[in-house]
Design a protein that fits this description.
Layout lengths: L1 H20 L1 H20 L8 H16 L5 H18 L5 H27 L1 H25 L3 E3 L3 E5 H22 L4 H28 L15 H21 L5
Antiparallel strand pairs: 1-2
Length: about 260
């Protein structure tokens, strides 16, 4: 528990300064996280991943993240062809594993695009989403440890309980609503809607990535963060929430 709390504060200390400063430090942070996430994704099938596939996955994410939307589909097609080529010449991946590498890579790419689009709206929008996820995740954990009795989906995540999920939802909703109504310059009904739904999406993202880990019989995606696992273990709910928020802002024509 102590290690988990210390690591959580260390993660915040690493993430917040580049987000506040923006520019090159933020780009470096994004690319670093993408590189580690690429390694963790390819490592799902084997403890010794194919480095060629890791590099391909990373650069594909970076390229698709940077290209104009008009070129997104062609670049995506090249990525798919590249993945199949690597799977043919390598014994590391089969079609089953390949599908997960592809899925996670697309999720990361869209989340990166969404992050930058939301960041351009203002830094408080990023903090709003981040706090909502962080509070939901943290309070779900602590509430579950303290009061959890009824297992949620044991075959996917044995430790998650309905009590924990409820505690995380209520806390995430309350904190994000107060923060959003104070700092976000968008219609109040959009803030209320997001605050009501983000804690749900956040926990669904956590469960989705947990199901992938269980499929490959993994406890964590990695070990870069002591007590927390890997980058994907920490960003699972955030990736889903950013994509969701990006879609909502787009639907309400709020993107700048």
């Amino acid at each position: 528990m102590k290690q988990r709390i210390i690591t959580a504060f260390a993660i915040l200390a690493i993430l917040i300064p580049p987000i506040i400063y923006g520019g090159i430090p933020l780009r470096i942070l994004i690319f670093t996280l993408c590189a580690i996430a690429s390694y963790e994704t390819v490592s799902l099938r084997s403890e010794e991943p194919d480095w060629l596939l890791t590099i391909l996955t990373f650069f594909s994410i970076v390229i698709m993240y940077n290209v104009n939307d008009n070129y997104y589909l062609p670049m995506l097609s090249l990525f798919i062809i590249g993945l199949f080529f690597i799977s043919i010449v390598s014994n590391i991946l089969d079609i089953d594993s390949l599908s997960y590498v592809f899925l996670i890579s697309i999720i990361i790419t869209i989340a990166c695009k969404g992050f930058i689009a939301i960041y351009d709206m203002g830094i408080f929008y990023i903090f709003y989403i981040g706090f909502a996820c962080y509070i939901t995740d943290s309070m779900a954990y602590f509430t579950g440890v303290k009061y959890g009795k009824h297992k949620m989906i044991p075959r996917i995540s044995p430790n998650k309980t309905w009590e924990g999920a409820f505690g995380g939802y209520v806390s995430g909703f309350a904190v994000s609503l107060v923060f959003g109504l104070i700092f976000l310059k968008i219609p109040y009904y959009v803030t209320i809607f997001l605050s009501l739904t983000i804690p749900i999406v956040s926990q669904l993202g956590d469960l989705a990535f947990s199901s992938i880990k269980r499929h490959f019989d993994k406890k964590d995606f990695g070990s870069v963060f002591p007590g927390h696992g890997g980058v994907l273990d920490r960003l699972d709910s955030l990736l889903f929430t950013i994509i969701y928020s990006y879609a909502i802002f787009y639907m309400f024509n709020l993107l700048v």
